[in-house]
Amino acid sequence: xxxxxxxxxxxxxxxxxxxxxxxxxxxxxxxxxxxxxxxxxxxxxxxxxxxxxxxxxxxxxxxxxxxxxxxxxxxxxxxxxxxxxxxxxxxxxxxxxxxxxxxxxxxxxxxxxxxxxxxxxxxxxxxxxxxxxxxxxxxxxxxxxxxxxxxxxxxxxxxxxxxxxxxxxxxxxxxxxxxxxxxxxxxxxxxxxxxxxxxxxxxxxxxxxxx
Length: 211
Hints:
Blueprint (H helix, E strand, L loop, with lengths): L20 E7 L5 E7 L1 H10 L3 E4 L4 E4 L8 E8 L6 E7 L15 E2 L2 E2 L6 H14 L6 H7 L1 H22 L2 H21 L4 H10 L3
Parallel strand pairs: 1-6
Antiparallel strand pairs: 1-2, 3-4, 5-6, 7-8
Helix pairs in contact: 2-5, 4-5
């Protein structure tokens, strides 16, 4: 268990008249905003000491340990406070990949009366679109045509794009390098989706390489 008790100076946090401070919870891998809840000084202290999120329930007037009942605990990775010291940002590993009591991954899933996944980083957003094309094919979609071609077509494109990256680097053209790497990333994401490999597992491996 990681002790975050020295991560932020609790006595510097500016609480409102109810003694609470808003806390935004964000996925540590892809940046998705998972939820917003209120913290008291006591719940913040418990969060820092236990490495799991604790909040203050305004309706029940008591502390609540996120995921204690559902099992969807939030393992704290970092805690930050804003420039006015009156809001918190907590990055977490969300167990079960569900933060909302409705069963959705994020509480911020409603857009104009429909359910839509909240925005994450660019790669995750693109991966979601690719998975949607895989599950709900569209006739004119290039992604769907790649997936329909299976490994032979997808892996051939990855090989071609990898070679293009090498050539762009040899030419030392930053714009071409960025373009070719984008193509390589895209086709690699198609391969991940085709084989039902989650891009978040890639992020976890990249986290391990932060040495």
